[in-house]
Automatic annotation (TrEMBL):
This is tRNA (guanine(9)-N(1))-methyltransferase. GO terms for biological process: tRNA N1-guanine methylation. Its EC number is 2.1.1.221. Signal peptide: none annotated.
Length: 141
């Protein structure tokens, strides 16, 4: 099931509401974050005037394209985290590489980026090595 709507700031203030983000914010202010964002749409910076929706599921399995389809249905702009741009695939026994993160990992990435303005620092904070991606300097070791 898709997660409930909430807004946040990196001082960890959170407001919850049963209302949809579609009813609370203008469509042009919403950026739906999904690992399946099309045409290489990257989240390059965090704009305080935008509302970022963390597209996700409360589920153990990965449903490809589900969050992208949801964003398309709602006619929302999408973006993805720049994992491929700042990280490399780490060799591992299972040949496993996944850019899909849990909601708390995306939250950690966004908050760390907002505080440091550094994608490498942010991705280090939120992308666990178990996802099969590491920063280039970690791959060299």
């Amino acid at each position: 099931r898709l997660t409930d709507c909430f807004t946040l700031s990196c001082v960890f203030e959170m407001d919850t509401t049963p209302e949809s983000y579609l009813d609370l914010f203008p469509l042009e202010a919403i950026v739906y974050l999904t690992p399946d964002s099309e045409n290489g749409r990257l989240l390059e910076d965090i704009d305080p005037s935008k509302v970022y929706v963390l597209g996700g599921l409360v589920d153990e399995s990965i449903h490809k394209q589900l969050t992208l389809r949801r964003a398309r249905e709602q006619r929302l702009r999408t973006a993805r985290l720049p994992i491929r741009e700042y990280m490399v695939r780490a060799p591992n026994a299972r040949n496993y590489h996944c850019e899909t993160l849990a909601i708390n990992q995306v939250f950690d990435v966004l908050c760390t980026f907002y505080e440091t303005r550094s994608w490498p620092a942010a991705l280090r904070a939120g992308v666990s090595p178990g996802k099969g991606y590491v920063l280039p300097e970690a791959a060299e070791q």
